[in-house]
Task: structure prediction
Amino acid sequence: MITASEIVATAAIWSLTAIGGFFCIRRTLCSMKARRSGKEQPFH
Result:
């Protein structure tokens, strides 16, 4: 039987993974667009 705390922990891990993946993809797309237009975007 899965307890409520296990469900919460799993949901937290999955949401953090999804958020991290989203930002990684967005940053990659932004850098690709910047490179295509000839403007290099410095990352901090």
